[in-house]
Design brief:
5 helices
Length: 185
């Protein structure tokens, strides 16, 4: 038993050593798409992870953890993903890139660019997705703005850490595996 555990830990250590530069790059965001195709692939990966996380969160928020949670998430995933991908690719990413380019200079660390980009992407996506869902689910209420603002805040406080700590690093890790860098940075 001890020998098996030792072999597994040695294998994990070996994998970690081999992939340390990849892991470091993914956490710090040292690798991004170099063209529209790579940007789209990265956006597709990040969007799919964020939609999965946020649909799950909102389903739990609405109904609690119940036996049909997985079915509910699966049912909502595709339409929400399509809407989110549309918003991300055609509206939010363009605005976020413009804002980041005005705030961050070329000499600033890449981490600063990633943090600002994540903040603006999450803010824009939360705004548009919350607006869309509230318009679809409660379009004719007297307290539309109250519902929208409360829902926006609830989504934002989960979406930002989800993007920074989970979806962003995983998306960069997967992206980095698909598009390895030509040389180390």
């Amino acid at each position: 038993m001890v020998k098996l555990v030792f072999k597994k830990s040695k294998l994990l250590l070996l994998c970690f050593k081999e992939n340390f530069s990849i892991i470091r790059a993914c956490i710090l965001g040292e690798f991004m798409g170099n063209n529209k195709k790579e940007n789209f692939i990265f956006g597709l990966i990040a969007c799919s992870l964020m939609v999965l996380g946020m649909v799950t969160y909102n389903a739990i928020l609405s109904n609690g953890i119940q036996s049909h949670l997985v079915q509910e998430v699966a049912l909502m995933y595709v339409p929400v993903f399509c809407l989110a991908l549309f918003y991300e690719w055609f509206i939010v990413s363009k605005i976020a890139r413009r804002l980041v380019s005005k705030i961050v200079s070329q000499d600033d660390p890449l981490v600063k660019k990633i943090l600002f980009m994540s903040f603006f992407m999450v803010t824009g996506m939360c705004f548009l997705m919350t607006l869309s869902v509230v318009l679809i689910s409660k379009p004719y209420t007297d307290n539309f703005m109250d519902i929208f603002l409360i829902t926006f805040v609830k989504n934002f406080i989960v979406a930002l850490p989800l993007q920074l700590l989970v979806a962003g690093p995983i998306a960069r890790l997967v992206f980095f595996k698909i598009y390895p860098p030509v040389g180390n940075k």
